[in-house]
Design a protein that fits this description.
- This protein is an alpha/beta fold and about 475 residues long.
- About 35% of the residues lie in helices and about 10% in strands.
- The strands form two sheets. Strands 1, 2, 3, 4, 5, 6, 9, 10 and 11 form a nine-stranded mixed β-sheet that branches. It has a two-stranded antiparallel ribbon with strand order 7-8.
- Strand 1, helix 4 and strand 2 form a beta-alpha-beta unit.
- The protein is globular and about 100 Å long.
- The relative contact order is 0.14.
- The N terminus is likely disordered.
């Protein structure tokens, strides 16, 4: 109990004061003797006396400060009315990060479900993605407990395609929305206790451990708001891939190849870069990059020099790749979310062909950069609250629902910039989770290359179950 009377310490201080019987002259005499005694003391004892005096002074000063601080706290407590929470409790120490085994020993956690969340609307690429999803289901040794296709389209033909697809796999589910739009997609398709692997429907490749890597990093870095895959064809990662040596020299062929071209180089089973002929056009070794194209999905006019040379054309490797790469579109790459890596279909074509070459040569390590902890070889790249594509990411359902509705219609800006900045929780990229995003709305010309055929051929040969190969589209 606190009282207003003198404390024990006050009484003790009062007892130490000199009484009236102790004369001033006696004090002066005592002081004179002390000075005389110090002068007469041996020299080796004088430093010790000084240090003792300093120590006593420090103790007295610290004691005074602690007493003042304690008095201030006491006064705050006295002044606060009962039941008032205006005085916060002392901060609790931060909990230690969860214990996550090393990546090479990491297994699917049993404490929560991992749900694949597909923003559906494009059957042409979902046919390829389908094989990767099946391979990553828990029934096939993967991490996905279920895959939810969230219908974000009103095209009946595309919805009928999805209805047929989900009938072939019991772990595939269709999610219909009360209204279209990204706020509606997130609000109506996630539950708080699950971890979601959000995958765009135009992902056409991801490596065998991509999902496991994302789940691992999300657990290993609980401070993160989400963890994104290392995206091939992304303006935020393309420049890095170029400068870390993952991009190779390619240019488009300008004349259709002869009809008797070897099937390994052209056709429904062709995907290997090693089977392509070396570029040997008679014209200049270059290709212009679109810099003024609008971002509304408009397609380049066929007579523009930046337009695709013809439907179904290939991109061919240049001789002396390292020497000539400055002549290719990727030389225009920028670390800029709205730069040429986003707008140019030509840059996208080059990074896709480079990926297929790297896959064939078993050199996906060229995409691995960033920091790693002693117990992990993740390769973490911190986006430092700048915009990042969210085509393939891991996120907790609770983190989404706690921040719905978004402030704007751009869910990518919300999930990579606004919300992480507000919560001081960064977006991290696991660079070992390599995944290929086919195209942005500004890169529609990619459909005039043979890249979809090549990704389909790779999936049929290396990923799809033998009884579930992707049908080859009929030529129109």
């Amino acid at each position: 109990m606190y009282t207003d009377g003198p404390s024990n310490s006050d009484q003790e201080s009062h007892d130490l004061l000199p009484s009236s019987s102790f004369e001033i002259d006696d004090l002066e005499a005592a002081g004179s003797r002390s000075k005389h005694s110090f002068k007469q003391s041996p020299p080796w004892t004088r430093p010790r006396c000084i240090w003792i005096a300093l120590a006593v002074a420090v103790v007295l000063i610290l004691g005074s400060l602690m007493f003042v601080q304690k008095s201030e706290i006491v006064e705050q407590i006295r002044a606060a009315p009962k039941g008032d929470d205006s005085i916060p409790p002392p901060p609790m120490p931060a909990p230690p990060p969860p214990t996550v085994p090393e990546m090479d020993k990491f297994q699917k956690p049993a404490e929560f479900r991992v749900i694949g969340l597909i923003f559906y609307g494009r059957p042409a690429t979902v046919g390829i993605l389908d094989c990767y999803l099946r391979k990553n289901l828990v029934t096939n040794g993967g991490f996905l407990d279920e895959v939810h296709f969230v219908v974000n389209t009103d095209k009946r033909q595309d919805i009928r395609y999805l209805d047929t697809l989900i009938k072939t796999e019991k772990l595939f589910k269709k999610v219909m929305l009360p209204e279209l739009g990204y706020n509606s997609v997130w609000k109506n398709s996630v539950e708080p206790e699950h971890m979601y692997i959000k995958i765009d429907d135009d992902m056409v490749f991801f490596d065998d451990n991509a999902i496991a890597n994302l789940v691992y990093s999300k657990l290993h870095h609980p401070e993160s708001f989400n963890v994104v895959a290392n995206l091939v064809n992304s303006p935020e990662t393309g420049w890095l891939h170029y400068h870390f040596g993952a991009i190779h020299s390619y240019l488009p062929e300008t004349v259709p190849p002869p009809k008797d071209t070897d099937a390994a180089a052209l056709g429904p089973k062709a995907w290997r870069a090693s089977a392509l002929p070396v570029w040997s056009e008679s014209g200049e070794m270059s290709f212009p990059v679109t810099m003024d194209k609008p971002d509304d999905g408009a397609v380049l006019e066929a007579d523009r020099p930046e337009a695709p040379p013809f439907k179904g054309h290939r991109w061919l490797p240049l001789p002396d790749s390292e020497k000539n790469i400055y002549k290719t579109p990727m030389a225009k790459s920028e670390y800029n979310p709205y730069g040429p890596d986003w707008k140019s279909w030509a840059l996208a074509a080059q990074v896709h062909y480079s990926l297929l070459e790297n896959i064939e040569k078993n050199q996906l390590h060229l995409y691995h950069y960033g920091t790693s902890s002693p117990s992990s070889s993740e390769g973490i790249w911190d986006m430092t609250y700048s915009r990042m594509n969210i085509n393939f990411l891991a996120i907790w359902g609770k983190d989404v629902l706690d921040n719905i509705p978004f402030d704007g219609p751009d869910d990518e800006h919300e999930l990579s910039v606004n919300i992480p900045t507000k919560l001081n929780r960064p977006v991290l990229v696991n660079t070992h989770a390599v995944a290929a995003h086919f195209s942005f709305r500004t890169q529609h010309e990619l459909y005039d290359t043979d890249l979809l055929d090549r990704y389909r051929a790779y999936a049929n040969e290396m990923v799809c179950p033998k009884n579930h190969e992707i049908p080859i589209p009929k030529e129109k």
